[in-house]
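Still learning. Show one?

>
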Amino acid sequence: YWNSFNNTRVSPLTITGNLDGNAVSLVAYCVELFQNAGTGTFEVVSLLSYLNNNTTKANRIAALIDGFAGSNNVNQDAAVQLAVWELMYETSNTLDVKANYFDSSDISSSIQNSANNYLASAVANVGSIDPNLRFYVAKNADKQDLLFYTRMPSVPEPATWGMMIAGFAAVGYSMRSRRTKTDISFA
């Protein structure tokens, strides 16, 4: 869905298609400003690869998405999209959607302020990204490149596996020890 703020469309898209042979419907953020959205075949690459191994930028985008994406709140979604563009295109060391190389001066100030707050939080929380999130970019030379993420199922820690096995063993032992002996005699 698109939302218009001061004649500028700012929001994530819902994309559908096949990923690794599975039908998917995902929230995606535009990472390329100078192409139109559209259907087609996209090459999917990791976010880090897309960013030419710029780990600082990839980690900031991951922290932003982990902290604020997918809210289903129009204003928050717009602010996240602005923050993604800021992280993608700003060439100075100052992250501010209202100034420098990437400037969104035609967007409402409340959306801009939220985007700047999300950026500050993303920079501060880079070390606390959910390890089960995987970030990708769908690339197409003629369409917008789109950032999306998936959540990998969590795998129990070895200690958790040990506790589960011990629990099953204890349950099995208690069930076995509850058997009553019955003497049967035939005449």
Remarks:
- Strands lie at 4-5, 8-9, 13-19, 22-30, 43-46, 133-139, 146-151.
- The longest helix spans residues 158-177.
- The first strand starts at residue 4 and ends at 5.
